[in-house]
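The freezer alarm interrupted the setup, so I double-checked each line after restarting. Inputs confirmed:
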Amino acid sequence: MDGLKYAVRKEGQETTCFTVGNLCVGRDFLLIAGPCSVESETQIMEAAKWVKACGANVLRGGTFKPRMSPYSFRGLGREGLLMLEKAGKEYDLPIITEVTDTRDVEFVAKHADFIQIGARNMQNFSLLEEVGKTNKPILLKRGMTATLEEFLNSAEYILSSNNSQVILCERGIRTFEPYTRNTLDLSAVPALKTLTHLPIIVDPSHATGRRELVLPMSLAAVAAGCDGLEIEMHPTPEKALSDAEQQLTGEGMLQLAEKVKKAVEFRENL
Amino acid sequence: MDGLKYAVRKEGQETTCFTVGNLCVGRDFLLIAGPCSVESETQIMEAAKWVKACGANVLRGGTFKPRMSPYSFRGLGREGLLMLEKAGKEYDLPIITEVTDTRDVEFVAKHADFIQIGARNMQNFSLLEEVGKTNKPILLKRGMTATLEEFLNSAEYILSSNNSQVILCERGIRTFEPYTRNTLDLSAVPALKTLTHLPIIVDPSHATGRRELVLPMSLAAVAAGCDGLEIEMHPTPEKALSDAEQQLTGEGMLQLAEKVKKAVEFRENL
Amino acid sequence: MDGLKYAVRKEGQETTCFTVGNLCVGRDFLLIAGPCSVESETQIMEAAKWVKACGANVLRGGTFKPRMSPYSFRGLGREGLLMLEKAGKEYDLPIITEVTDTRDVEFVAKHADFIQIGARNMQNFSLLEEVGKTNKPILLKRGMTATLEEFLNSAEYILSSNNSQVILCERGIRTFEPYTRNTLDLSAVPALKTLTHLPIIVDPSHATGRRELVLPMSLAAVAAGCDGLEIEMHPTPEKALSDAEQQLTGEGMLQLAEKVKKAVEFRENL
Amino acid sequence: MDGLKYAVRKEGQETTCFTVGNLCVGRDFLLIAGPCSVESETQIMEAAKWVKACGANVLRGGTFKPRMSPYSFRGLGREGLLMLEKAGKEYDLPIITEVTDTRDVEFVAKHADFIQIGARNMQNFSLLEEVGKTNKPILLKRGMTATLEEFLNSAEYILSSNNSQVILCERGIRTFEPYTRNTLDLSAVPALKTLTHLPIIVDPSHATGRRELVLPMSLAAVAAGCDGLEIEMHPTPEKALSDAEQQLTGEGMLQLAEKVKKAVEFRENL
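Predicted 3D structure, all chains:
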């Protein structure tokens, strides 16, 4: 990890904190929730209601969706982001969405509170530098096959472009195991905690790809020391246009949020 | 997972329990601790004292050590097992050791309370059948590159040989990430819980290969729902003949045991 | 592979051919050679002389270099491409360079004869669609962790954007083996031959990361049925600003080209 | 690779050769062929006829079959080996079969000309030492997840037990790619050639798991520099009790042997 200037944790250095509205990322536990994709205004409004109800502090929704096949549903684009923005305002929730093209960065930075860089773009260095020029917090997801060293160097691209608000997100790596969609590498959480001062969150939805594993892995992530979670939930998962298998229902999300809250309190007193 | 007869969890089936002395595996939280290798009578006695002190319920110690190189320290063999047995008796702790050769099974079954099958032998089918003929509980470790389906089929070899006392152990899989020794696949815990009725424990020492990651990953494993932990500890890790990097000190073990106990209680009330 | 419309090979369909100058890609054996990076006009001119001398038919040179660290040499950018273009004209060689940003596609399409999409951008779908709008042949490299299905779907993004000139390139996948930089998956060559009509070439330089393995793996790739090779060579590899370990010398390149030529002839008569 | 005493290639050292009947392993190209499993005397006799006809020099047949599930066909055991021995004598072919249990080594060493250690037992160190005590050549297959360093250390176990007749076999490693059964790591061939003096052969049948890939990968293996091949063939593959998908027919084997012979000649004159 020798080449890092800004991402490396210096001895005794605290986890970086920064504020978004009332939220202090890096100190308050970050609970991001919402659907894989924004599908309609009705759907995202309904989702936002549940997200607010469960006490999550950020609303997510994909609008530019990277999909393996060009013929799959690829999101509603800029129009979708405006729907997400409206839902966020309606429920007083900061919003996050993924950007995949340098040419959309300005628009996304204008309408979203956080910008997400997805796993497939972790080494899209032009995109990293472009979001590094905005003043929005960046949620950087670990690439499917990225080592921790590569992950931190990708954060370094953003930091060295003059944006110090970077959140790392472990979301599963690719292995030989077919039972889960990816293999959640939870040891990355305490490992990154020793290597960097950046906040680290976990996405158990994409990591496992299975609804029934999201709750136990969320609790495990909290116990491992993460600073937050990103969870996919959908008002009616069986009708979702993407990732139907892994999205929680509203009820499931309520239950998860309640248990996660207790687990965070327990951890603080351990 | 279609070919499984005995390992598969039937609807509504509880986790299998079985007793070893006062311990009820599958119900009581199993905390196995001790050195990677038995190195001398003094060393294993000293280790056992710590293991007892921290409230762990099984003493481990390797005596037949599978090592990459034929020129590495390979354990004290049968003599080492007798030392381990003595330490177990002295401190009233059931003991566990690994067996690697069918010809040693009878001896190990006579002197140990649990028999361990290591990751490298998970598909040594002769050995699985041989330990399946004993009446001792078998701790079966997941192979470095084994899918959950292969893991459960290996358990099936033991179960179908008429030994129903099998404990599964997730200990990390091999991936591209060099920072940790292996990648701990904690999602295997809740996944296996849905697939099988066998108890499942976690070995964070071999999974991470780094002392500082053992505690957070132990707590994460508890939160994920495991039935126990196997932890490497050594009275003087810096002098250990094998796995020096990952063994906890006695003090570290005390601290871990205390926190794990609280985490188990918290989990039960969540 | 069900979702593919254009990339899939229909029964009896021949490998796709298309012409670039005098070269007929898909029929003539494609031998792309040149330095990892264009470093100066002198260097690329010297490299081009060797490339021409050995009978290779395309000159490569990186000008927009994706690098793990933001502080590494990242290429000369547009200026470098102009140097490469000059060298190509001087030695009557079509040229290829990588593009990493949608905003550079127009410039690269204007000055290069082939456009390369690197492994890290195999799922940069905006970039795929942008190069799909040009009329230049696209060399699409397999992602480090991409399945064949994902690889073909990425080709489909280009094909469905109305550019039918796509060449696939196997360049090694990421595995647990540390001896080589990546693991060259040569079985991908005959596998892709059955799945798609697109030409398939192999890059043994990035796959192995070791100069001494480039020649044997080039010959193996020819025997496996590839339609071409991409080889890194540098007039003075020990002074290279990137990938010094894997670039052949001019002499090494001459020797390789001669043997590959014979191997291609042998294959045709087998 | 520092700990190796016997397996390491010293500067200028030639590939080790040893004779089995008229065959000089390490100098003559080794072509091992035969069914995955010996299923009956009729089947192995018929297979042997094809093997002889195609000019292969060793007859293979599994008799102790390691299978994922205890309920799969696991071979005919000792009786099967006697059938294989009879077929070998009838057609004047040395025979090879796998041993999986230390207690069978003496019997196998008595009846077979070569002893095979399978991928799953590459780190079954007791078994390695036991075959190291015989005077038969050992074919050691690379474990599914073994690094080259681990592979050579396993050879070292045999060599240091006083058996210098070891042949290494690359048979595919486990990766994320689902299209092939394993990923054939052909770069292991030239890499091992620089690291060790032991002969190295390739098994494209288990590596790919697909009949149509066996021929191209055999030719690629020859071009990469291997000292032999092990190919699965069955008189009637569609009726095979194991590995039906990957076994060649007799006709397919004839065609392969003829092309491989030409490829070996070509390689020698290149």
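Quick read of the result. Chain C is about 35% helix and 15% strand.
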